[in-house]
Write a structure and sequence with these properties.
Residues 1-117 form the PIN domain. With 139 residues, this protein is α/β, with parallel strands linked by helices. 47% of the residues lie in helices and 15% in strands. The chain has one domain: 3-Layer(aba) Sandwich (Rossmann fold), CATH 3.40.50.1010. It has eight helices and six strands. Strands 3-2-1-4-6-5 form a six-stranded mixed beta sheet. Strand 5 (122-123) and strand 6 (126-129) form a beta hairpin.
Length: 139
């Protein structure tokens, strides 16, 4: 099973060690599924973790350890453009949809209820679900 974790899920795993995002991250570390990521997402994770409000609660070494761990995932270097007619409500999430298609993911897990990804429900063969739904269905 191939899974993409939205950056907000990855950060959630670092912020709260007892919620669904952390359970998902630990399941990947235990080789229960294949994680699909991209250089674009790794760059986003590094950048977002430096925001002042996150920097005070996320030590740089924990973010660095996560980024290093994710180097062992399926890392897509170049993402193709989205097919004609496929758009993300939030342009910053377009790379996640491109990852889902290029990485042939089974799931895209996101906690962002406002960006429109969850409302989309799927793209190609990829189901778009919340962390709680993923835990209930796949773990």
């Amino acid at each position: 099973m191939r899974v993409i974790l939205d950056t907000n899920v990855l950060l959630g795993a670092l912020i709260s060690p007892h919620g669904p995002p952390d359970a998902i991250y630990r399941a990947w570390r235990a080789a229960r599924f294949d994680l699909v990521t991209s250089t674009a997402q790794l760059d986003e994770l590094r950048r977002v973790s430096r925001y002042p409000k996150l920097k005070i609660i996320l030590p740089a070494h924990r973010v660095g350890a996560m980024v290093n761990n994710m180097q062992r995932a399926i890392v897509l270097d170049a993402l193709p453009p989205l097919p004609e007619g496929v758009e993300a409500n939030d342009p910053n999430d377009g790379f996640l949809l491109a990852m889902a298609l290029a990485g042939e993911a089974d799931y895209l897990v996101t906690g962002d209820r406002r960006a429109g990804l969850l409302q989309r429900g799927s793209i190609g063969r990829t189901r778009i679900v919340t962390p709680a739904t993923f835990c209930a269905e796949a773990l």
